[in-house]
C-alpha cells in the first residue's frame, strides 16, 4: 500500500523531514488504540506498537499521546511485526471534546481528519441544541464539515428539519438520506476521495455504523436493527477505528456520544453562533447581555421571530460552560507551575546536601 493512500501528504512530509531521525525511523498511522497498545498501518502492512520510554517521560497529558488517525515515527521490528513509537507528528486537524470526569483535559476523538460528517437522526434523536454543540466542536477541529440528516424514511417533516438545520449551520452542506436506500449513498460517496480521511460523529443510534458498513461493502461494524418502538438502531461500536475503504478513502468510526462536553473558547462559540454575534453588534450597549437591556438587538430579533429564544439560551449555556472550563484550565496551570517550582527546589536542595 502506498503511504499516500493512508493520508500522507506535504504537511506530514515536511514535519517528517524536519525530525531528521534517520533511515531506521519511518512513518506509520494509528488505526486503533487499546490502553497502552496501538495498531498501526504503514507501507508494508500492519503493526502492533507501544510508545518508547522517552516518549512516555516527555508526554505531559493524554492529548500528547497518539490517538486514532495520528501519524507517528516508529522503529519497526520486522520479524515480530511490532514497532516502537518515538515521535508523534503534529496534527493538521483534530476533533476534540472535554474528557469525561472532573479533570479539565482534552480527549482527541479523531486526528488528521479532512471531513467530519455530523450524523443526525431524523427521528426522536433530532435535537437542534445538540447539533449546535457539535457545530462548535467541529468548527474548532480544522476539518471541513458535512451535516448528514439520516433516517429520512422515518420522518414526515423532512423539509422543515432541513430548513431548521440550514438556519444554524452556516456554510456547511446539509444532505438528507436513508441509510437503507442505495441511491442516497452517492451523496456521501462524492465527498470521499483516495487518501482523504473522514469521520462520522453523532449520538448513539443515528446510523453511523450502518453508513460505514455500506461504504465498506460488508457488515464489519456490528449494528442492531431499528426498534419499532423508539425508532433507533443501537450503535454497538465501543472503540475508535481507522479503516481504509475499497474506494480508496479512509474512515474513522467513533462510538456514539451520550454527552458532548465542550473543549472550545469564545472564538469557537462566536463562529458557531455567528447570527447572534452579528445581531449583538446592533445593541445599544457594548456590554449588553441580551437579557432585558434597552436597545437590545438580539431580544428584538426574538420578538420579531427572526431568532429562536432557545438558540439564545443555548448560546448562554455554552458560553457559561466555556468560561468555567477556562477558569479550571488557568487554575490547573497555576498548580502545575507551582508543582514544577517545588520539584526544582527539591533537586536544588538535594544537590547542596550531596556536595
What does this structure look like?
By secondary structure, this protein is of the alpha/beta class. It has 3 domains: 3-88, OB fold (Dihydrolipoamide Acetyltransferase, E2P) (Beta Barrel); 94-253, 3-Layer(aba) Sandwich (Rossmann fold); 266-334, Orthogonal Bundle (Ribonucleotide Reductase Protein R1, domain 1). It is 34% helix and 22% strand. The chain has helices at 10-19, 53-58, 128-141, 158-166, 186-189, 208-216, 266-272, 274-280, 297-303, 309-354; strands at residues 25-34, 37-42, 45-51, 71-77, 82-88, 94-98, 106-111, 115-121, 144-150, 174-176, 197-201, 241-244, 250-253. The strands form 3 sheets. A 6-stranded mixed sheet has the order 10-9-8-11-13-12, with helices on both faces. Strands 1-2-3-5-4 form a 5-stranded mixed barrel. Strands 6-7 form a two-stranded antiparallel sheet. Mean pLDDT is 87; it is low at 224-235.
Q: What is the strand and helix layout of this fold?
A:
Elements (H helix, E strand, L loop, with lengths): L9 H10 L5 E10 L2 E6 L2 E7 L1 H6 L12 E7 L4 E7 L5 E5 L7 E6 L3 E7 L6 H14 L2 E7 L7 H9 L7 E3 L9 H4 L7 E5 L6 H9 L24 E4 L5 E4 L12 H7 L1 H7 L16 H7 L5 H46 L1
Helix pairs in contact: 3-7, 3-10
Low-confidence stretches: 224-235
State Rg: 23 Å
Given the structure, what is the number of helices?
Answer: 10
Q: Gap between N and C termini, in Å?
A: 58 Å
Largest sheet: 6 strands, mixed
Instruction: Write down the domain tally.
Output: 3
- For this structure, the CATH topology of the largest domain is Rossmann fold
The total count of strands amounts to 13
What's the CATH architecture of the largest domain? 3-Layer(aba) Sandwich
What share of residues is helical?
A: 25-40%
Kindly report the name of the CATH homologous superfamily of the largest domain: P-loop containing nucleotide triphosphate hydrolases
Supply the helix-strand structural class: alpha/beta
Order of helices and strands: HEEEHEEEEEHEHEHEHEEHHHH
Amino acid at each position: 500500500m502506498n503511504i499516500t493512500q493512508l493520508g500522507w501528504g506535504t504537511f506530514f512530509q515536511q514535519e517528517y523531514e524536519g525530525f531528521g531521525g534517520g533511515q531506521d525511523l519511518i512513518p506509520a498511522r494509528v488505526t486503533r488504540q487499546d490502553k497502552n497498545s496501538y495498531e498501526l498501518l504503514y507501507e508494508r502492512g500492519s503493526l502492533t506498537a507501544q510508545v518508547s520510554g522517552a516518549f512516555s517521560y516527555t508526554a505531559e497529558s493524554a492529548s500528547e499521546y497518539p490517538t486514532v488517525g495520528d501519524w507517528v515515527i516508529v522503529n519497526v521490528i520486522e520479524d515480530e511485526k511490532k514497532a516502537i513509537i518515538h515521535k508523534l507528528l503534529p496534527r493538521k486537524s483534530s476533533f476534540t471534546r472535554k474528557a469525561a470526569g472532573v479533570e479539565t483535559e482534552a480527549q482527541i476523538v479523531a486526528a488528521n481528519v479532512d471531513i467530519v460528517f455530523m450524523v443526525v437522526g431524523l427521528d426522536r434523536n433530532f435535537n437542534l441544541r445538540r447539533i449546535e454543540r457539535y457545530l462548535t466542536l467541529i468548527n474548532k477541529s480544522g476539518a471541513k464539515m458535512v451535516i448528514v440528516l439520516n433516517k429520512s424514511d422515518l420522518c414526515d417533516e423532512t423539509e422543515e428539519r432541513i430548513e431548521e438545520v440550514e438556519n444554524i449551520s452556516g456554510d456547511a452542506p446539509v444532505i438528507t438520506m436513508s441509510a437503507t436506500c442505495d441511491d442516497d449513498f452517492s451523496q456521501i460517496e462524492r465527498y470521499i476521495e483516495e487518501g482523504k480521511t473522514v469521520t462520522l460523529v453523532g449520538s448513539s443510534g443515528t446510523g453511523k455504523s450502518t453508513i460505514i458498513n455500506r461504504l465498506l461493502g460488508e457488515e464489519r461494524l456490528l449494528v442492531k436493527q431499528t426498534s419499532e418502538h423508539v425508532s433507533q438502531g443501537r450503535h454497538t461500536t465501543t472503540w475508535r477505528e481507522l479503516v481504509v475503504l475499497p474506494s480508496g478513502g479512509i474512515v474513522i468510526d467513533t462510538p456514539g456520544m451520550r454527552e458532548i462536553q465542550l473543549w472550545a473558547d469564545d472564538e469557537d462559540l462566536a463562529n458557531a453562533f455567528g447570527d447572534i454575534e452579528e445581531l449583538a453588534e446592533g445593541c445599544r450597549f457594548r456590554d449588553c447581555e441580551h437579557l432585558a437591556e434597552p436597545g437590545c438587538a438580539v431580544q428584538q430579533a426574538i420578538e420579531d421571530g427572526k431568532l429562536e429564544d432557545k438558540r439564545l439560551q443555548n448560546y448562554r449555556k455554552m458560553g457559561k460552560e466555556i468560561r468555567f472550563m477556562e477558569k479550571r484550565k488557568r487554575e490547573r496551570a497555576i498548580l502545575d507551575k507551582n508543582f514544577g517550582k517545588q520539584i526544582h527546589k527539591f533537586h536544588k536542595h538535594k544537590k547542596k546536601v550531596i556536595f
